[in-house]
Amino acid sequence: MKFTLSAVRAYGALTLVVACLGLMPPNWLVAASAPYLELGPMVGHTTPTETRLWAKASAASRLSVRVGTNADLAVGRTVRGPALQPETGLMGQVLVDGLEPKTRYYYCLWLDGKPAMLPPYPSLTTAPPDAVPGHVRFAFASCVGNHGYDATAGYADLARTNVDLLLMLGDNVYSNTNDPVVQRRFYFEQRDTAGWRGLAPRLPIYAIWDDHDFGPDNSDGTMRGKELCLRTFKEHWANPAYGEPDNLGVYFKFRRSDVDFFMLDGRYYRDPNKATNLTHKTMLGEKQLAWLKRELKESRATIKVLASGGEWQANGTEDSWRSFKRERDDLFKFVQDNSIGGVLLISGDRHYTGAYQVEGRYIEVTTGPIGSAPATARNAPESFLNFSATKGHFYCIYDLETAVTPPKVTLEVLRVGDGLAERRVFSWDEVTGAAKIKTLPPPPKETPSRKANAQ
């Protein structure tokens, strides 16, 4: 239950009157002062046997959850969660384990041992067994806009779409600072929108960051106080991990069926884009790159998804892998030398949706914006899809079927409010780079007269 501001003010005035008269407050007035669920719930990392649920309370309290397979929760169990304290913004997450694969569970969050939600209760579905070939549909989005309401229509669209999980690829809020107070305010505005409230209680959501939710525009690892934004990021997302014990960050890996997801941190260890005097200029940092190579080599998944905030293609903006080509090419060489197949690249940041065959070998899809102002981009040499001329907000879905030979890989591009804009089925040879994808025609060369008109 959530109270309006006018209701809170009325409650405060009534409490003051009762206190001034020296009267014993009635039971209903005492109950009204109890902590309530201010934001959430949000479903985070979900496996075949466990899930993580995020929430924010109105006051210090103990978070717990009742969970069961019956819609009314008449039969179920209660899982004790953390104490929500002011120093963590009254936010926290509870880990629910002991679940069964591919099973729908209903749940109700409790605060201080009392239900904080009313029926009908939300539900979530656990993942299928790990490493077993099957069907995975995942959505991915980026660039939410300067206000919480900018992307609420996109979240509402996603809530009505049949997907297993959502990947947020950065610029998840536009706080443009590492000040925790400001960052929290932007996150709270996002999670108080109707679209987010309709989506987050039922769909597992994973996130990495890019520049606008890490710090100022084009910010990098030299930013002072970056540990503050890392703490704030961890407060708001229920990811399975945050870097490694000896290497902080927001990168992590998780598995869904026969698909491995590698979620990368392109900000915390990033050298400045314009740094040209560095012998080993890096976006990921030495330890994260070593982790990625190690995990890719050990992966037995049929498909490996590599998620980056910025584009992988060679002709992106300065704030992309274009400025870190040595490190990117080293990673690609490692993939080839170790015969690592089934790699799909995804990214955000550009405020438009497009696709490339990077190096003539790797399919990259860049998605967005789901809420920000759309941008226009000219066809790059590796482009085979470009929706930047189609103004609007976009998100993408990959539909992956690994239980067949060869595996099926289908891309769906959706325009918010309009539905399916493109459905593209890739052959396995296109996924592995054995077959080339026809690129879009190059943009017309600019003549002096055209340049003058553009100015």
Question: How would you sum up this structure in a few lines?
Answer:
With 455 residues, this protein is of the alpha+beta class. The protein has helices at 5-20, 27-32, 152-159, 180-191, 194-199, 211-214, 226-236, 286-298, 325-337, 428-432, 448-454, and strands at residues 37-46, 51-57, 61-68, 77-84, 91-96, 104-111, 114-115, 123-125, 135-141, 165-168, 205-207, 252-256, 259-263, 303-307, 343-347, 354-358, 362-366, 383-386, 394-401, 408-415, 419-426.
CATH superfamily of the largest domain: Alkaline phosphatase D (PhoD)
Secondary-structure-based class equals alpha+beta
- Percent of residues in beta strands: 25-35%
Helix content: 10-25%
Tell me the radius of gyration.
23 Å
Give a structural overview.
The chain is of the alpha+beta class and 455 residues long. The protein has 3 domains: 1-33, no CATH class; 36-125, Sandwich (Immunoglobulin-like); 135-432, Purple Acid Phosphatase, chain A, domain 2. The chain is 22% helix and 27% strand. The strands form 4 sheets. Strands 12-13-14-15-17-16-18 form a 7-stranded mixed sheet. It has a 6-stranded mixed sheet with strand order 11-10-9-19-20-21. A hairpin with a 3-residue loop joins strand 16 (354-358) and strand 17. Helix 4 (180-191) runs parallel beside helix 7 (226-236). The longest helix has 16 residues, at 5-20.
Task: Record the SSE blueprint.
Blueprint: H1 5-20, H2 27-32, E1 37-46, E2 51-57, E3 61-68, E4 77-84, E5 91-96, E6 104-111, E7 114-115, E8 123-125, E9 135-141, H3 152-159, E10 165-168, H4 180-191, H5 194-199, E11 205-207, H6 211-214, H7 226-236, E12 252-256, E13 259-263, H8 286-298, E14 303-307, H9 325-337, E15 343-347, E16 354-358, E17 362-366, E18 383-386, E19 394-401, E20 408-415, E21 419-426, H10 428-432, H11 448-454
Parallel strand pairs: 9-10, 10-11, 13-14, 14-15, 15-17
Antiparallel strand pairs: 1-2, 2-5, 3-4, 3-6, 6-7, 6-8, 9-19, 12-13, 16-17, 16-18, 19-20, 20-21
Helix pairs in contact: 4-7
